[in-house]
Design brief:
Chain A: Pfam families: ABC_tran (PF00005). The structure holds 2 protein chains of 2 kinds. By secondary structure, chain A is an alpha/beta fold. Helix content of chain A is 38%, strand content 24%. Chain A is built from 9 helices and 10 strands. The radius of gyration of chain A is 18 Å and the shape is globular. Chain B is globular. Chain B has 8 helices and no strands. By secondary structure, chain B is an all-alpha fold. Chain B has one domain: MetI-like fold, CATH 1.10.3720. The chains are: A alpha/beta, B mainly alpha. At the A-B interface, helix 2, strand 6 and helix 3 of A face helix 5 and helix 6 of B.
């Protein structure tokens, strides 16, 4: 579904942010990407829908080469849902309009069809009663659930999550992770950048560990948590799992 | 003081005010539209486009409005005649309208540009990530938010424009001030008519300005 072949990316001339990335994500797989901050994990998933262009190599999403200049990037993006750390809901639109905007504009869906779809998705994320609310009147957890519904409204083949719970108060993390888990169980192909190791353990099929722009580990959650292969990963796990760091 | 001559002159003053307001509204609409296009050009990644827009803005902000008005009075009829191939005179009103639109666009551009820049990059990314094009993103996501934020500034600039419309006297257009001046001249009570005109300008500008301030407070809360 997603394939990286020898992908390299630099910021400026010196900062080599992705180093020779090779990676394949199969249909229906749930891959958690973790690593210390600055390791390039957000950049990695942003290259999949070209929010970040790459300098070298090839990224293939469902048979479409992302970094080919001839590729209709808007069409590709319509098939790849993206959930941001800071939700990025449109503040001037109601919850319902946030969700229906892209289906109506990009997919030329009728308003009735788009609203019906939006209501099904709001039902699914447990916010059907908030359809007329504005983002400013929702909690962070609710905003993120709307953002997930907005992404799903394009009926994407893949969903990408860029630290979806990092900007949330602790008591709201659970509701967002529950929606994501439900989505994973429905068979959605997902790549999730997160520090939620509980989610990785329970929901992920695979865990990628990145440090300094390189994939150091690519294995099952079981193997990653019990027998990490690199010192860098052992150190990371010690830091993130130690009681002092919650 | 005797105000009876003011009453007699009222129809002329009213039609002068209508001309002023017509000029104002059309110039605002055209100026904001052109200013928005200029702002998008200035923010474009295309160097040529952004430099051209930058030159336009800096040029018009560096010359007096009165010069633009008189200059366009002579040049615009010539250009339009050349474009349409006719020699129909287009008159002072349209040459002034074009002058105001183009001059004010330079100022509106800077307001719109700041407005667009105040919207977080995440909004653009969110729209792009859903497959929206640049123009859909601007039209449906960024500009509606930006215009909401900059409405007070756009209105403030439009109040200045309202006062500046009086400069059309230079090409003999009978706007409100010019009507008042000429009516006052005819009856020999120029000072009364000018005082009256000043009062009207003050009430409208100050009233509008107060409303804008109130709006601004409401928008920031």
């Amino acid at each position: 579904m997603i394939r990286f072949s020898s992908v390299n990316k630099w910021y400026g001339r010196d900062h080599h942010v992705l180093k020779n990335i090779n990676l394949e994500v199969k249909q229906g797989e749930v891959v958690v990407v973790c690593g210390p901050s600055g390791s390039g994990k957000s950049t990695l998933i942003r290259t999949i829908n070209q929010l970040e262009p790459i300098n070298d190599g090839e990224i293939n999403v469902g048979g479409v080469i992302v970094n080919n200049p001839k590729t209709d990037i808007n069409k590709l993006r319509a098939d790849v849902g993206f959930v941001f750390q800071h939700f990025n809901l449109y503040p001037h639109l109601s919850v319902l309009d946030n969700i229906t905007l892209a289906p109506m504009q990009v997919k030329k869906m009728s308003r009735e069809a788009a609203e019906q779809l939006a209501m099904e998705l709001l039902e699914r994320v447990g916010l059907a009663n908030k359809k007329h609310a504005y983002p400013a009147n929702l909690s962070g957890g609710q905003q993120q659930r709307v953002a997930i519904a907005r992404g799903l409204a394009m009926q994407p083949k893949v969903m990408l999550f860029d630290e979806p719970t990092s900007a949330l108060d602790p008591e709201m993390i659970g509701e967002v992770l529950a929606v994501m888990q439900q989505l994973a169980e429905s068979g959605m192909t997902m790549m999730v950048v997160t520090h939620e190791m509980g989610f990785a353990r329970e929901v992920a099929d695979r865990v990628l560990f990145l440090a300094e722009g390189e994939i150091l580990e690519d294995t099952t959650p079981e193997a990653f948590f019990t027998a990490p292969q690199t010192d860098r990963a052992r150190q990371f796990l010690r830091q993130i799992l130690s009681p002092m760091h919650g | 003081m005797d105000f009876s001559s003011l009453v007699t002159a009222m129809p002329g003053l009213v039609s002068g005010m209508m001309l002023t307001l017509k000029l104002l509204v059309l110039a605002i609409v055209g100026g904001v539209a052109l200013g928005t296009l200029l702002a998008l050009a200035r923010l474009s990644h295309n160097k040529l486009l952004s430099n051209l827009a930058g030159f336009y803005v800096n040029y018009f902000r560096s010359i007096p409005l009165l010069l633009v008005i008189t200059w366009f009075y002579f040049v615009v009829p010539f250009i339009i005649g050349w474009l349409t191939g006719t020699n129909e005179p287009i008159g002072a009103f349209y040459s002034c309208l074009v002058a105001f639109m183009m001059f004010e666009a330079a100022y509106y551009c800077e307001i719109v540009r700041a407005g667009i820049q105040s919207i977080s990059r995440g909004q653009v990314n969110a729209a792009y990530a859903l497959g929206m094009t640049y123009s859909q993103t601007m039209r449906l996501v960024i500009l509606p938010q930006a215009f909401r934020k900059m409405t007070p500034l756009l209105l403030q600039q439009s109040i200045i424009l309202f006062q500046d419309t009086s400069l059309v006297y230079a090409v003999g257009l009978m706007d409100f001030l010019n009507s008042a001046r000429s009516a006052g001249d005819i009856v020999g009570e120029l000072h009364q008519f000018l005082l009256f005109a000043g009062l009207v300008y003050f009430i409208i500008s100050f009233g509008a300005s107060t409303l804008v301030k109130r709006l601004q407070k409401r928008l920031t809360v």
